[in-house]
Design the sequence.
């Protein structure tokens, strides 16, 4: 067994930065009318044709809570100045913050969707759930959808990178052209957003773009869309996915055998370490999920593994777990990896987890 890649890196908190913490918004929610709390005047729900679609929330690396989602315009006319209200709450439904934001696209075309990404003002570990409401919108002039995006291959490893071209087929200059790379999970929720901006694209001209973004282990499909001060593009699917390391580890949890969290771990109490793994290719692939536990000084205290097979196609997300029973009090780190059966890495190292004190 090759152990050379097991090394001590950054110590972080118990939450993974890849959506390990999910608020109520993580539940699948269909597009539906919502009312603003105490709010601005909107039509009655029966007449509303602008909906909040399924939302998704997670803790960002800086400790803020990020809420992603989409607004659907089912009207026959475009809208603008869309306001989305986010209520951040604790476990007892006490409101900790209410914040409004707007969609990433300034104008939502008729019968179309536009994504939003809104974060809490500051880090607050007490935020455990969110609610999302439509807080207002206004009529808009239409924008010609004459920006044509030609995405290249999407390179996926520790980071995602998409290169491509965008052509302005309009009759005037496209200024402040913003291109968004949207990652969707199996429930068609937006789970990450990457952005690139091109200041000027002349009429009839083509520009190159590169979008770099952090990957989400939940991502299944990808799309790009663009908007400038005067024009828009149609949504364009990204179909050419190239994975240099085809497995992404996310949502690593340290729990008791039944899945409940420990505040501290007693000596000789059984511990379950589990991770979600997303496979990015379609061909079958066997794998070994490794868990390594180290003391603060770097001494290896435990190595365990479990095995499985990705069949490809729709079989692309697995959850694996390894059990460990500590026999010595102290502070430990958890490291996770996925290799093939020959010891070749299939993933980058998962997020390092500090499991507090074993008492």
Sequence:
């Amino acid at each position: 067994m090759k152990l050379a890649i097991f090394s001590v890196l950054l110590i972080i908190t118990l939450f993974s930065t890849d959506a390990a913490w999910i608020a109520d918004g993580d539940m699948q929610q269909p597009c539906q009318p919502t009312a603003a709390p105490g709010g601005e005047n909107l039509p009655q729900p029966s007449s509303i044709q602008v909906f909040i679609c399924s939302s998704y929330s997670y803790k960002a690396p800086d400790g803020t809570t990020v809420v992603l989602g989409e607004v659907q315009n089912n009207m026959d006319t475009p809208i603008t100045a869309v306001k989305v209200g986010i209520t951040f709450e604790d476990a007892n439904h006490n409101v900790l913050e209410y914040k409004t934001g707007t969609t990433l696209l300034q104008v939502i075309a008729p019968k179309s969707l536009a994504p939003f990404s809104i974060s809490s003002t500051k880090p607050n570990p007490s935020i455990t759930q969110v609610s999302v409401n439509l807080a207002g919108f206004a009529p808009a002039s239409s924008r010609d959808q004459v920006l044509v995006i030609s995405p290249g291959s999407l390179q996926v490893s520790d980071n995602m990178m998409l290169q491509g071209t965008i052509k302005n087929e309009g009759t005037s200059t496209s200024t402040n052209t913003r291109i968004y790379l949207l990652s969707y999970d199996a429930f068609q929720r937006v789970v990450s957003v990457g952005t690139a901006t091109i200041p000027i694209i002349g009429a009839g001209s083509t520009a190159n773009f590169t979008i770099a973004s952090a990957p989400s282990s939940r991502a299944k499909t990808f799309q790009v869309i663009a908007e400038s001060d005067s024009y828009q593009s149609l949504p364009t699917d990204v179909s050419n996915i190239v994975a240099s390391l085809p497995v992404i580890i996310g949502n690593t949890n340290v729990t008791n055998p039944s899945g409940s969290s420990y505040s501290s771990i007693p000596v000789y109490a059984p511990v379950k370490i589990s991770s979600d793994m997303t496979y990015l290719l379609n061909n079958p692939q066997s794998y070994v999920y490794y868990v390594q536990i180290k003391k603060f000084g770097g001494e290896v205290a435990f190595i365990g593994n479990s095995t499985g097979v990705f069949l490809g196609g729709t079989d692309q997300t697995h959850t694996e777990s390894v059990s460990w029973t500590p026999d010595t009090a102290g502070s430990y780190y958890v490291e996770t990896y996925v290799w093939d059966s020959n010891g070749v890495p299939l993933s980058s190292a998962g997020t390092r987890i500090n499991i507090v004190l074993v008492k």
